[in-house]
Structures are given as structure tokens and as C-alpha cells.
Amino acid sequence: MKFTLSWLKDHLETEASATQVVAAMTMAGLEVEHVTDPATKLAAFTVAKVVSAEPHPNADRLRVCQVDTVDGRKEIVCGAPNARAGLTTVYAPIGAYVPGLGVTLVEKPVRGVVSNGMLCSGSELEADDGSEGILELSDDLAVGTPASQALGLEAVIDFEVTPNRPDWLGVAGIARDLAAAGVGTLKDLSIAPVPGTFPCPISVKVDGDACPVFSGRLIKGVKNGQSPKWLADRLKAIGLRPINTLVDITNLITYDRARPLHVYDAAKLVGDVIEARLGHGKAEVTPGDQPSHAEHHDEQLIALDGKTYDITPEMSVISDAGGNRPIGLGGVMGGESTGCSEATTDVFLESAWFDPIRTAQTGRVTGINSDAQYRFARTVDTGSLVPGLELATRLILELCGGEPSDVVVAGEAPAAPGPILFDPAYVQALSGLDIAPERSLKILTDLGFAIAPPEGLAAAEFATHVESVVSVTPPTFRRDVDGKADLVEEVARIAGYAALPSTPLPEVARAVGGVLTPRQARARVARRALAAAGYNEVVSWSFTSTSTAVLFGGGAAELVLANPIASDLDCMRPSILPNLIEAAGRNARQGFPDVALFEIGPVFHGDRPQDQKTTIAAILAPHAPRGWDKAPAQDLFSVKADLIALLEELGAPVASLQTAQGSTSSWWHPGRSARLQLGPKAVLAEFGELHPMVLKALDVAGPVYGFEIVLEAIPEPKKKAVKTKPAFTPSPLMPLTRDFAFVTDKAKPAGDLVKAAAGADKALITAARVFDVYEGPGVPDGSKSIALEVMVQPRDKTLTEAEIEALSAKIVAAVEKVGGKLRG
Amino acid sequence: MTDLTTLEADVLAQVAAAGDLAALDAVRVAALGKTGSISGLLKTLGAMSPDERKERGAAINVLRDRAQTALNDKKAALEAAALDARLASETLDLTLPAPYRRKGSVHPTMQTMDEMVAIFAEMGFAVAEGPDIEDDFHNFTALNFPPKHPAREMHDTFFFNTKEDGERMLLRTHTSPVQVRTMLSQKPPIRIIAPGRTYRMDSDATHTPMFHQVEGLVIDKGIHMGHLKWTLETFLARFFESDTVTTQFRPHHFPFTEPSAETDVQCDRSGGEIKIGQGTSWLEILGCGMVHPNVLRACGIDPDEYQGFAFGMGVDRLGMLKYGMPDLRDMFASDGRWLAHYGFSAFAAPNAASGLS
Predict the structure, then answer these.
(1) Across residues B94-114, what is the average pLDDT?
(2) Cβ-based contacts of B131 with chain A (< 8 Å)
(3) For the residues of A775-805, what is the DSSP string, one character each?
(4) How confident is the model at residue A457, as a pLDDT?
(5) What is the pTM of this model?
(6) Among A801, A790, A794, A807, residue whose Cα is nearest residue A733
(7) Contact between residue B154 and residue B221 where contact means Cβ atoms under 8 Å apart
(8) Which of A63, A340, A691, B127 is 20 to 30 A from residue A383's alpha carbon, by CA?
């Protein structure tokens, strides 16, 4: 929404500058986007008078002018054919930036004569008057008058209107708020009715769903044509194109009073009834807001923009010819067939009220975002129906002449807002602002609210302040206000948020265990632990492509977006891994293939809250720089080490975890992946090498290793009443180690042997570790040798040789049970 | 006595001449071994008269001690020389690089979120959460967005397909639904923040289809806008780690707050970058207001008994402002060089004791 300062001053008696108005608007809640101020842009340009203009000695088309300027008499070379003695025009000094040319003037000779400045055309000042040559201004203007003033250019203020304030879509509404805020005095906005001189020959008819209320009148004998300069200038200043006087008047009132109107050329109407009804087209097949262009519609309208629109039964249609011919989409756009032209002599003027939701929907379906549609969709003042008609009548009579009929009205406007019981003390209770009740009520009155003694005061909430409670009725243009909190906002914003006190929150007891849930705390630990382990944290989209989601076990219909931002981001991710893998690919394509990435975030298995899980996923695409020391390359086992260390850090029961192979998800290498689980239904994590087909599908070179932990699957630690740890009781006895080598089937997991050995004597054995895996000569084909180091911690006395032998035998027996034969 | 003097000179000369431990040991054996020259002299004492033995014995013992001392000294010297030689041979070129180790990092958005949680935890706020896939009730209706209201349109909502029963799920457009979930599940007093992912159909240098917000909600008796102002001023000063953060509250409109405000911080925009805490410009930071009575009612809270405030701010955006990342899209691009450049140390966990950053 745009307006100019002079337009505002039509309604507001004020000396405020554009800067002051903008500041006051901002603090009243109007977000100013942009101010274009020609006075600033054209500050260097002033009025000058050409004293003489002689032919240039070296160029036929140039003239050497003596010019009286704000800087004294100057010799200026000018190429304009209209540069002549006595001309009043605009002068730019050396050093001025000429916006229309995009250059800064420098002193340089033109064909041998130095030009000490420039005489300007309208286009050079970006104030195009359509004429050629330099500006020709009124001789009354004094030398040195600012060009912006001489040209009548003024500041244009462009601002954003929040959807709750449709009244701000008219300059008068802004004036009212600014007057309340103390920027000036509101001028009388009332509109005197213009009595009709004959009965309206055209009657109106409404279907309440399509249009609750519709008013109009005929004005005959008008002379339409180009608008007068003041009207055309006013519209042009805010970026509107003048069309003809009748149309320009409706546009003026749309922007002045937020009251859209429409004019029909009465000669083009068929029949003598105008009817507002719902469309006759077929119902939309798809529910929702999407138009189905493929559908055949029974009704169409060629609108004023020259385009043809299909009409649906949800749209409000203005029709004539006994309701058979659509001549407009109510509140959105009129039809071409009945539009006003310069030939129009009888005009039917419409002022109606259209439902915001219906208008918004019609706007969406048709794609029309007209000034009328924008306003009706945000709720037009229900009280402005006839006053708007009267104001337009007055202007039409003034500018086009003619004779008005009586006003005809069909239907009924929505009820005006009802009264709100209001205790001015609530202003301080809710806002903290200390404002006298009288001032609060004055602000509300200034904003158009009606204050009255309360009627039927029954609300218990006011029991203690009965004497101060008043009844406040919002004006019809403030339907957004429907409660006492809204009234507090009105008072507070006009009184000014700058006066808000800064009041410390009351002290509350802090949660003893910190504010984070165990899961939240774990996510924080995981973040720091993985970063410390050398992984870079990323934050990637919660979406992926459906095809990628399918690769990772997702892609369910309920997780596919109806309106994705891009086709490759159309499905909620079932896993973080694909995003990390794709990131590895992007980094590799930029020349940085060595990545270790992790992310902690949501994954989605359904659309219910409980279907969302938090996972910790990491990948390693090892392409470390070659080392001089021939150290072995990082592999899956370094990822396993990081995973186990992380799980320990998170307090997972690492010692109880089974490493289950052969049951992992399909995106892993089937032979090089495993689950860490407490049981088949309690899987904490999967890790491994990514399946080559998955990497191929994601266009990433392997190998890529990774893991994904489901945070919710890690059992929460038991809450302990006290934080003391169990007593530290180191054994005074030396631990000892014994080595064993077992031959076992090649496919046998080493973990089974380790578990058996470690479990052979739970009291004495503290650990069993694999220190060699061997296949080859000395070991039968299809078998392997696993060498174990078993740590023994004597408990109450040093073990004798015999006791150690017995323990060894137990270990051998236990391992044999799981298929490991002591190597001879 | 001449023979002893000669012998001593001879043994000491041999000790001095010994080039290594083996040669030295041969000298020791030749002098002090069972059949050594000095040992041989000691054996002759038995055949001597007591007087002769006394005189001669003392002289031989002196000789033996001198020889032994010389041998010990020489041995120590040879051992030291051998060690020096070995160490010299063991020299490593320490200009060679250590084994490669990756340097990990924490994402700036997450670091910023941790900072926010740390500040609000100090102020007594717990951390609440809610799902990213929401229903219309929690994201809009309960937050006082009337059905089909233009304010809904402004949210550029991502929708899922409408189901057979007419339900249409969506991606939450703000973290405000967590307000609703919190108020429906717990009784006042309430003091929470709700950080999380939010989604809008938008993409340019300052908008991405996914971004992060932190929502704040305080519900109690007698909470007013002054408390809101103090809370946000206190937060912003701590967040920007400055004593001089100046804020401005401007009226605004959100369906779920009444009165509503936007909060700006004073900043300096000269020189192409934004400096908080100085200058003459204002930068919009967040939206806030008093929780709308309709929202309280929708959550089963009596607005005549309890009132409170809510605020919502963009985590990524505040992180960009504080740490100077120029483009929001880069935050989600996972470029390793960017992560290394803007990422944070694993050990820089924000806390009240050592400061935020």
C-alpha cells in the first residue's frame, strides 16, 4: 500500500515531515517498507532561468546558454531544441548525480566550450512529463526553487498492512491512527449524501451467500474522459495508471477509504436487473484451493483484464440479462462487456460487500489479485457501503456532471460489532503500561470506538471495578477487535510501546536436575562427542526425494508432500543417512572427498507424533591424505570404535549389546553391517558399509561407512536418589593374562568365542580380547584361527598353578561348546 | 716397590687404552681376575713374614683399589659414549607430519541453539518439544487463526495429501504449536522454550524451506508485557554478549498474541556488515506478544485467571547475525569447507561459567 504525504494531509491537519510520519506509523504498527522522497533524490536540482541562448561556435545543434542559477550566472552548453532565452527550467550543478542518466556531472568542454552544469529534461530527473527537450516550467517560479517542489513531486510511502487492519488500506484510516497518535488533527471524514433526482431504473437482487448486500445508483448524462491533472497525478504518484475519470474515481476511493466500487456502462447492460449470485459452473473435483483447469465449466467471464476466467459455484457472480450473463466476479473484477469507456454517458455505480473468505478463494482460483479483491479478502468496512456510493456520486457529478438516481440497496450488511465490557485498569494489568483511564478511553474514542456506560453488567470478572467498567463498541471498520485484550493493544500501541516497563520475571525454583530431559541431554552429549571424534556436524533438510526415501525404507504416501518446494525434496526422510551420503557426494564433486559428517535430527516413519524419532547418524568417506608412515587406512572398524565410544558416552548398556549380523536394513552391505541390539525388538543402532547399489543410486563413490543410532531406543538410566558412586575397591593382587588360539569355522563370528571365553568364569575373568585372526597354512581349509588374550583378576588370593590350569580348562571347554577347538 | 709402581702404570695405561667394554673387561681380568697380575701379587702375601706382609700388603691393596677405580671410571665413560652413539643413531626427523586426524565441529545453528538454551535455563525455562508433522488444530486453529483466514496464507505452509477422512497434515510453520501442546498437557505456571525445525515454502538468500525457531512461553498470574520486555532484553544482551544492546518494541499483528509486537535491536549497518549494540539503525529480531485469550481458552486455561507472553525467534538468523554467516542457504548445504570455517569446537559448550562463546 502506497500513499503520498499530500494525500495524507487531505485528511490530517499536520506539519509533520515524511520522516516524522514514517516514524509515527512505525510506532503505531504500520510497517513502512520503503520511502521514495524526490526532495532527497533531487536535492541538487533547482529552478533556473535561461538569459540567452547563442549558437555554439563549433556545433550546429548545440547552444551556449547564459543561465541565472542558484549558483549565479553560468555558461551552460545545451543540446535541447527548446533551450531559449527566457525559459524557466531546471539546473543541475557540476557534481550532481543525474538519476535518469545514471551519471555524475563533471566539468568538461563540449566541442571546445566548457559547460558549467546542465539543463535537465523530465526524464533525466525520472519525472517524465512525456515532452521532449528540457523542462519548461512556469515563469512564476523563483531561481533556486527546489526542482521537486517546482515539479510537484512528493514523498511516496510504501508500507505493509497486516491482515487484521483492512482499514489501513485507505489513506483516511492511516490519518485516523496518526491523529490518535498525536501527529495531527483528523479532518472531517463524513460524507454528505447526494439526493437522487429520479428513481433508479435498474434494480438489484442478491443471493445472500454470494453477496450479503449490494447497493447502487444510476448517474445519467455524464461526460467521461481523461481525469483532471490532480486526480491523474495522485494515482500516478502511487503507481496506478489513470484510465478514465469514472474508473479513476473508483480507484481513488479504493485507496482513500479502502472502499472498492465498480462502474458499469449502463448502456451495455442487458435488462434492468443486476443480480449477485453464485456461479453456475461445475463443482471443483479436487477439494481445496487448486483450480482444475481441465474441467469444463458452464460459465465463463471475460474480465476487464481481457482474460477469460472459468466460473465455479463457489464464486460470487454479478449478472444481468435475467441472471444469465456474468458481468463481473463480485469483489474481484468486472467484466469487459459492461466496462466504462470515454463514450459512456450513463453509469451504474456499484458499492457492495463481499465475503472475505469467498473473495480470497476466488482470488486464489483465478489468480486475480486486484485492489478490490485484496481489500474484500481482508474485510471491507460494512459501514462504508452507502457512504462510499455517495462519495463517488459527489466526485462523478463534480468531474463528469450528470444526474443521480435514488440509491437502491438489496440485502443486509453483516451485523456491526457488538459492545465489549472493558475495565481500563486491564490496560496496566496486561501491558504493564501505567495509563490513566481517561487517556485510555480518549485513545479508543480517537480511533473511532464508541464508549458508553455498561449495560447489564453481570460479568463476575469486573466485580471489583464496577465503577470504572465501560462498554466499548468497535467501529464497523474495526471488526478485528472482539475482546478486551484487543482494546489493550489499541491503547498500548497508540500510547507507545516505548513506555513499556522492564519488569523482571518472578524468581522460580530451578529444576534440580537441569532443564533438559535425558534424551535432550543425550543429544547434546552426542553432538560434542562426535565433534571431538573428528566428525563435522551438518544440518540437512528433513525432506528427501521419494525415490531416495524408498531406498531407505520410507516413502509412505502419508509422508509425501502435496506441495514440495522441489521435486527432489518431496518426502519426509526415513533416515538421516541419505542426506549425509549425498553431502559426501557434493563435497567430493567439489574436490573434497574425505568427509566425516554427522547429524542429530528427526526421521519420520509416519505422520503421528510418535512416528517421529530422533536419530544420530554419521558417515565416514575415508580419503585421508597419503601418509609417509604407511599407516593402515581407516575402515569400518574405526567407525565401529567411534560408535561404541559414543554409545558408552550416552550411557547405553554397551556390555550387554549383541552385535547381530545378517539382519540389517537393505541399505547396508549385507556382509559388512550389523545391528547393536539388546534383543531383536530393541535395536539401538545399525552400522556398516553402505550398500554399493545405494551409493550408485545416490551417485557417490564408495566405500562409505556409517552408523545410525535411534536415540529413543537407548534405555534411559534409572534415576538415582543420591549421586554417590560405588566404593572404589582395587584388587591388591596382580592381574595375569593367558593366551589361547582356537580353530573354528571360517563363518563363525569371533564375538561368539570371545563371549564364551569371557563367560567361562565371571568372577575371575575381566576381559577376553582377540589379538590375532589367521587363515592359511597350518589351519584347515574353511577354518580360521582366533587368538584370544584372557585377562584374569585374582580376587582374594594369588592363584596357584593348579588353579590357573583349571581356569584355562574351563575357558577351553566353554569355547569348544560354541565351536572353537583349541589349536594344538 | 718399583715393580708395584711399574705394574700400576702398566694397568692404568691398559685401562686408558681400552676402546670398548670388552677390551676393558679383558684388562680387568688380566689385572684383577683370578689369575690376574694384581690378584697374583695378593696371593704372594701368604708366604711373607708378618712385617713384610703388613708393609707389602698395604701397598698392593692401594694398587688394587686404584686399578678398580680406574676400571669403574672408564666403564662409566665407555657406557656414556655408547649411549650417546646409540641416541645419535636414533634421530627422527620430527618435521615429518603426525598421523592425519580429522577436526570435527559443531554446526553454528546447533551452537546457537545451545547458547539460547543455556541463557533461558538460567532464567528458569524448561525445554519443550513437539512433532514437525502437525495437524491443523495445533498449528493454526488453536492459535486463533480463523479457518481460511489470509494470515494462514501468509505462512506458505507445506501440506501433505488430504486423507480419506478429510484430515490434512502439514509441516509446522512455526514452533508455536508446542505452546499449545504444552498448555494442553501441563497446568500453569508454565515457563518453557521450544526449539525446533520449522518449514515454509520459500527459498532465497534469507529464506529456506526449513529453518529453526525457538519459541518461548510464560503463563502465570499477573504476567504482563513488561515481563516480556525484560525477558527479551535480558536474553538479547546475554546472547549478543554486550552490555549495550538497545531494543525497540513495535506494534505488530500475530493471530495468537494480543497485544503483539516485533522487537528490533539497535545496530550499525555502515560498512556492509551489521554490528549489534551500536549505530542508529534498527534490525528486526523476533515477534512476540501477550498470549491471546482465545489461545488460552483453546488450551483450557482461563484467561481471566492466567495470562502470559510468548515469543518466537529464528535461530539460524540470530546465529548468522552473531557470527557473520552471509547466506542462510549455506547453513544447510553441508559443505565441508563451510563447516570447518563457521563450525564450533566440540569443547565450546555454552555455559554460564565460561561464557557463551
Answers:
(1) 93
(2) 608-609, 612
(3) -STTS-TTEEEEEEEEEE--SSSPPPHHHHH
(4) 56
(5) 0.86
(6) A794
(7) no
(8) A340
Average pLDDT on B282-303 reads 94
Provide long-range contacts, Cβ within 8 A and 24+ apart, for B344-347: B344/A531, B344/B105, B344/B106, B344/B107, B344/B108, B344/B111, B345/A531, B345/B105, B345/B106, B346/A527, B346/A528, B346/A529, B346/A530, B346/A531, B346/A532, B346/B104, B346/B105, B346/B106, B347/A528, B347/A532
Q: Looking at residue B300, what DSSP letter applies?
A: T
Of B149, B233, B343, the CB nearest to A537: B343
- Amino acid type, B106: V
Q: What letter would DSSP give residue B44?
A: G
CA pair distance A263, A248, nearest whole angstrom: 10
Cβ–Cβ below 8 Å for B97 and A163: no
Q: Does domain B108-342 have CATH number 3.30.930.10?
A: yes
Q: What is the DSSP string of B124-179?
A: T-EE----SEE-HHHHTGGGT--TT-HHHHTT---BBPP-TTS---EE-SSSTHHH
Distance CA A799, CA A807 (A): 10
The single-letter DSSP state of residue A335 is B
- The C-alpha torsion from B151 through B153 and B155 to B156, rounded to 10°, is -170
Cα angle, residue A544 at apex, residues A542 and A549 outer, rounded to 5°:
110
3-state DSSP percent of chain B in helix, strand and coil, to 5: 45, 20, 35
Q: Which grid coordinates are listed for A446?
A: 480517537
Candidates A501, A498, A496; CA nearest to A182 is A496
Q: Do A515 and B117 touch (CB under 8 A)?
A: yes
Q: Write out the three cell numbers for A130.
A: 512525456
- CA of B258 vs chain A CAs: smallest distance (Å): 6
Domain residue extents for chain B:
2-89, 108-342
Whole-number mean pLDDT of chain B? 91
Task: Check if B204 contacts A (Cβ < 8 Å).
Answer: no
Q: Which residue of B has its CA nearest to A461?
A: B304
Question: Would residue A754 be called left, alpha or beta, if left means φ above 0 and alpha means ψ between -120 and 50 degrees?
Answer: alpha
C-alpha A325/C-alpha A337 separation (Å) is 10
Q: Residue A399 has what pLDDT?
A: 96
DSSP-derived secondary structure letter, A502 = -
CA separation for the pair A609, B184 (Å, rounded): 15
3-state helix, strand, coil in chain A (%, to 5): 30, 25, 45
Parts of chain A with a pLDDT under 50: 283-296, 462-463
